[in-house]
From TrEMBL:
Keywords: Signal
Descriptive protein name: S10 family peptidase
Pfam families, per the entry: Peptidase_S10
Source taxon at top rank: Bacteria
Keyword presence, Signal: yes
Signal peptide boundaries: 1-36
Keyword Signal attributed: yes
Amino acid sequence: MIVSRKRPVLRAIASAITPAALAFVLVSTLSTSVFAQERRANAETKEETPSKDIPIPVEKAAVTQHQETIGGREIHYTATAGNLLISKEDHDDYERPYHSIFYIAYTEDGADANTRPVTFLYNGGPGSATIWLEMGSVGPMRVLTDSPDATHNAPFKIVPNEYSLLDKTDLVFIDAPGTGFSHPVGKGTVKDVAGVDEDLTAFTKFIVRYITVNHRWNSPKFLFGESYGTTRSAGLSATLNSAGVQLNGIVLLSSILNYNAHAAGLDNGYITDFPSFAAIAWYHNKVPNKPADVMTFIRQAQEFAHGPYAEALWAGNALSDADADKIANQMSHFIGLSPQFIKEANLRISASRFRKELLRDENKILGRYDARFEGPDAEAAGDNAPYDPSDTGISGAYIAAFHSYLQNDLKVTDTDTYNNSGPGLNQNWDFNHRPAGAMGPFGREQRMPYVAGDLGDTIRKNPHLKVFAANGVYDLATPFTATEWELAHMGTESKMRSNITWGYYPAGHMVYLNVEALKSFRQDLGHFYDNAK
């Protein structure tokens, strides 16, 4: 376990049911700028505005009963796979909904709703359904993979998840609007939800509707997002708070909280990427005389990145040739690339180049989401990796296992297409964001979202809110040092530092792909939930 507490660490389809409907969530796809699970959305075609209203479905659910031993006790629970309708109106007029949101909820039988926590989980993208979180992390079942090797062909195996959080909290996995079985209805369109703030509005409406329909207003409430899901969670902390939903805790898994950090001309991203490069070089034995403990090496790399490396980048073109040689040699010691290559890159190594260069002599490329994964390239030349072995190595297993689980275990008989990536979402996504607090609503709208400020605003208003930031040290999509930076600059008082705790794991973006890391992650989550109720 690598953890720091001190550091910026249908039985048949139920009848056309009434509002007494139900709940649950899923992980992943991102665009080429920053994070986990932006994968297939880019290949989708743009959505066309429907020529007439889309039929509005009834709210219905497939309800099944299960039991499992988790955390040393036998838990009897109900799985509810259903949909809720959300209205575009500001009032509760659900006769005019614009989207139907699919969820899968796991709720402990006989538990007191006033004391039993409920957690809303989702993946990212933007535009990803939540199959990754549900089938890999803390849901009651998980798929087995061969990570970090590419997973074998079908049949795939799904097993009870001894690392589930169901002993601590009810779980509601939500498919983001336009993904999974979530889709527009009535006069709704994909463009209505394809944006930072549009997505926040839809999720706020769904969560408020879920806790109202299921009588969970007084339950302790948590959010659990991965990748762009962390962007969503930070924003939701503010929009839910404004809606009267006071959160107990937020789990940020593989965070991206500032889309401006890698803008052209800015050097901060090279500094925050550097410790991740060092960890990956350590893992692949490209570090001479490497220390036994990766976290020790990471902290050494951080000290160098924050000191001599930052100073060299600050000098820019004024850096002397002698100093450039010195810095390049020091960088080479940490990240395993040749000093000559580093100098040719002007001391600025992108994650895409690093993925190609580190194992170039073996004609192998590294995974972006998880650099433990390796894959062969067609040829050794070129600057960038043409695919992501950490995506292709697990996607088939997760998708097939989830569909089998839906049909055979949850008894979902829906024959509609389940969209792992929402058609038209990524292409139509509006990254403009109106920040919470002092910078909005009268402040300037952001062209790219910076949501750590939203989270800071929420913590200032709700000083009891706890945050757990979990990080895979081999993640090149959302490097952990960037998360440390953003959460250290939220504008909160130093006495609120204890609101945030940290976990660092020998894994990538999807920490749970390393089962030993999942075990440690689950232990840390248990402590977090115990302290955040």
